Amino acid sequence: MSGQILAYLEDLLMPDAVKVGFVPFSAAPRGVLAVFCDDTLKLGPATAKALGVAASVVKRAAAANQFKGKSGAVLDILAPEGLKVGRLIVLGTGKSASLKDGDFIKFGGKIASKITAGTETVTILAELPSGAMKASQAAGIASGVRMRAYRFDRYKTRNKDGDNAPMRTQFSVAVADVAAARKAFSPENHVVDGVLLARDLVNEPPNVLFPAEFARRATQLRKLGVKVEVLDVKAMTALGMGALLGVSQGSEHDGRMVVMRWNGGKAGEQPVAFIGKGVCFDTGGISIKPAAGMEDMKGDMGGAACVVGLMHALAARKAKVNVIGAIGLVENMPDGNAQRPGDIVTSMSGQTIEIINTDAEGRLVLADVLWYVAKKHKPKFMVDLATLTGAILVALGVEYAGMFSNDDKLAERLTAAGQETGERVWRMPLGPEYDKQIDSQFADMKNTGTRNGGSITAAQFLQRFVDETPWAHLDIAGTAMGVPASDLSRSWGSGYGVRLLNRLGAVNYEAKK
Fold first, then answer.
1. Are 424 and 399 contacting, i.e. CB atoms less than 8 angstroms apart?
2. Contacts of 322 (CB under 8 A, 6+ apart)
3. What is the pLDDT of residue 167?
4. Taking the complete model, does pTM exceed 0.85, yes or no?
5. Which residues have C-beta within 8 Å of that of residue 136, sequence separation ≥ 6?
6. What is the 3-state secondary structure (H, E, C) of 151-166?
7. What whole-number distance in Å separates Cα of residue 140 and Cα of residue 156?
8. Residue 119 — pLDDT band, cuts 50, 70, 90?
9. Distance from CA of residue 110 to its chain's centroid?
């Protein structure tokens, strides 16, 4: 890796809490040893050899702890006598016939979740009862370790005990073929980098990550070969982006639009496009939010964070596809220059919008960015991501993102990618009955409908700015921030969407080698 790219990584990404590498099965385990068994407690041949007589102790400990090797179940014991490690972790894989490729990243995360601060080394023996894991499966283990070990602690000035203590651990994944595992891990490692970058952006405080700073960080992608253009207020005014600019006019931090382009496909080939809502802080504007919980509104740029993380992943792994990533960056503040309920603004499309509620600002930002991308770049499709409505949490909780689409094939592909990565989406309805709820008596439309079906009428609003372009809208208000800890994340900002959209592109739109 070149010194320039290393400098880029140091500037844009927080340093990992852990280091992950691959070693051969013959390497002596150190520190903590993690191994795998199925639901019959069967071990692989290399695992049985590594444990030796200690294998019988594992079976007794399993019986005492009612450990039955179910998928994701963990037996964590002091290492039996004869093993030159301090602890032994046995992770159940469940029935061998039921294993899926997506399980292995969770297994890696589960192991990392059991490692405490102060542990210097961990060896993971990447073997199933049937034999050595495939290179791609071992790569999944390594990816899961990195994702689960992530933490955002750059603003802590002193270390504490327990959960706040830093982890600086070397994970060694023992495999049958080190070269093959490293080759398989290389693209996946870049995708994890993209996820962690998205998490970093969402976790940053709003006094640090305002629109101009967010745009500056996006420009660092140039060092990976991404073409980045930053549009300021003057440029957006010339384009007629009255919807986006109306949101930002109440803040001392001017808005920005950032357009990123990765040209990894054939020259002149139609690109795919991803658009992100980037409200760096959302007070609600004049329609101000309640004070309780407002600090969470630093995460109202989770869609934009995902797009930047995705562009990093695609460029770093040299994805063979042409991609546009576009983000609208604003702050929604309530000063004397802020827009008011009752104002009418003119979008870039020429359509006029009556402002009913200034807290329905994200759709105004997206309206201009969607129109810009559709008309200027004419993509094969557009997918936008936005922490858009609280209504989607009422409908789906934090398990699924809401998906709205005008194209069945795109929706089906997103659904499949969600199932494969665990970043799941659930298709919601669109229709003329909902669309008419945003008609206005004073303008072409208003920016909110009634209380009922709020996530749907928000999507209907966006659909008016995509014209005939195949499009999907992902409402990620329940999945991008403040989600419960999982096998893959203990971070407030989840980085949701990077793996989903990377998978969508890799399977369906990239040129095959």
1. yes
2. 261, 262, 263, 264, 265, 266, 269, 270, 271, 272
3. 66
4. yes
5. 101, 104, 184
6. CCCCCCCCCCCHHHCC
7. 31
8. confident
9. 19
- Which entry of 19, 30, 289, 380 is annotated as an active-site residue? 289
- Per the CB < 8 A criterion, the answer to whether 342 and 354 are in contact is yes
**3-state SS of 32-69?**
EEEEEECCCCCECHHHHHHHCCHHHHHHHHHHHCCCCC
Size of the chain, expressed as the number of residues it contains: 513
Look up 363 and say whether it is catalytic.
yes
What's the Rg (C-alpha) of the chain? Answer: 24
Rounded CA gap, 120 and 158, in Å?
20
Give 235-275 pLDDT, tens digit per residue: 999 999 999 999 999 999 999 999 999 999 999 999 999 99
State which amino acid sits at residue 281.
F
- In which residue are the tokens 């989600």 written? 483
Query: In sequence order, what are the beta bridge partners of 258?
Result: 230, 327
Measured CA to CA, the distance from residue 484 to residue 205 in angstroms comes to 20
- Residue 208 CA to residue 465 CA, distance in Å, equals 32
CA angle 217, 221, 227 (to 5 degrees): 120
What lies within 8 Å, CB to CB, of 26 at 6+ separation is: none
Enter the DSSP assignment of 402: E
Q: Which of 437, 424, 428 is nearest to 455 (CA)?
A: 428
Instruction: Taking the CA atoms of 453, 455, 461 and 463 in sequence, report the sign of the dihedral they define.
Output: negative
* 42: exposed, middle or buried (Cβ count in 10 Å: 0-12, 13-18, 19+): middle
Q: Which tokens is 145 given?
A: 């370790």
Given a contact cutoff of 8 angstroms between Cβ atoms, the answer to whether 273 and 267 are in contact is: no
The DSSP secondary-structure symbol of 338 reads: S
Name the token pair of 412. Answer: 């089906």
Residue 288 DSSP symbol: P
Which SS3 state, helix, strand or coil, does residue 384 take?
A: strand
CB proximity list for 223: less than 8 A, separation 6 or greater: 4, 5, 7, 8
Please tell me the distance from the alpha carbon of residue 464 to that of residue 103, in angstroms, as a whole number. Answer: 39
Q: Which of 106, 256, 261, 363 is catalytic?
A: 363
